[in-house]
Amino acid sequence: MKRADIDQFFRRLAAVNPAPKTELDHDTPYTLLIAVVLSAQATDVSVNKATAELFKAADTPGAMAALGEERLRGYIKTIGLYNSKARNIIALSRDLLKKHGGRVPGTRAALEALPGVGRKTASVVLNGAFGEPTIAVDTHVFRVANRTGLARGKTPRAVEDRLARVVAKQWRQHAHHWLILHGRYVCKARRPECPRCAVRELCAYPAKEA
């Protein structure tokens, strides 16, 4: 996709949704971090249902560490991989208390050093909590970037690196939110809703729905 088309691509997504944001419920950098950790291989809807009660009981590293792994599992047992997620959340909460004064760090290296926090999770937190223009590549972003021709790559990191090169600075802060929401509600995995797509004319997908 040409540079001018990429600018138009994001201009159209911005016209549809000028201020996109994550659909994970959170109030603080810590609750955002926990919600993103829980969202791996799970829907935002299922995470929000679980955290609605969880965050009433524990919404700080200290409270979460005090809650303990067994009780935490009871709150998140409806979410996939809840055993390993509970283990990581307790461990990262303790790390935040020991190494960061109970605060979520604002650097990629420090975030990725936390148990259960990978590159995508760190990118989401850096963007949502600290205003960094990071682009987190989840399954929706990966699909939309490849399908449309916006930024093709065989791995999430390859797509991320390509997006970092081609997305203009003015779009970068919200880019991954626009792409996630577009992939979730329009450019769906099994049957993209091409007739109502705002970027249809710019898209390289050869099998557009009528």
What would you say this structure looks like, in words?
The protein has two domains: about 5-20 and about 135-200, Helix-hairpin-Helix base-excision DNA repair enzymes (C-terminal) (Endonuclease Iii, domain 2), CATH 1.10.1670.10; about 30-130, Hypothetical protein, domain 2 (Endonuclease III, domain 1). Helix 5 (about 70-75) crosses helix 6 (about 80-100). It has helices at about 5-15, 30-40, 45-55, 60-65, 70-75, 80-100, 110, 120-130, 140-150, 155-165, 170, 175-185. The protein starts with a helix and ends in a 25-residue tail after the last helix. With about 210 residues, the chain is mainly alpha-helical. The mean pLDDT is about 95. The chain contains twelve helices and no strands.
Fold topology:
Layout: H1 3-16, H2 29-38, H3 44-57, H4 61-67, H5 69-76, H6 82-99, H7 108-112, H8 119-130, H9 139-148, H10 156-166, H11 169-172, H12 175-185
Helix pairs in contact: 2-8, 4-6, 5-6, 9-12
Search tags:
single chain, 210 residues, mainly alpha, Endonuclease Iii, domain 2, Endonuclease III, domain 1, 2 domains, 12 helices, elongated
CATH class of the largest domain: Mainly Alpha
Oligomer: single chain
* Architecture (CATH level 2) name of the largest domain: Orthogonal Bundle
The CATH superfamily title of the largest domain: Hypothetical protein, domain 2
Radius of gyration: 18 Å
* Spatial shape: elongated
Reading the helices and strands in chain order gives HHHHHHHHHHHH
Here the CATH topology of the largest domain equals Endonuclease III, domain 1
Alpha-beta content class: mainly alpha
Average pLDDT, rounded to a whole number, is 94
Q: Biggest sheet, open or closed, and with what strands and sense?
A: none
Sequence stretches where pLDDT stays below 50 over 5 or more residues:
none
How many separate domains? 2
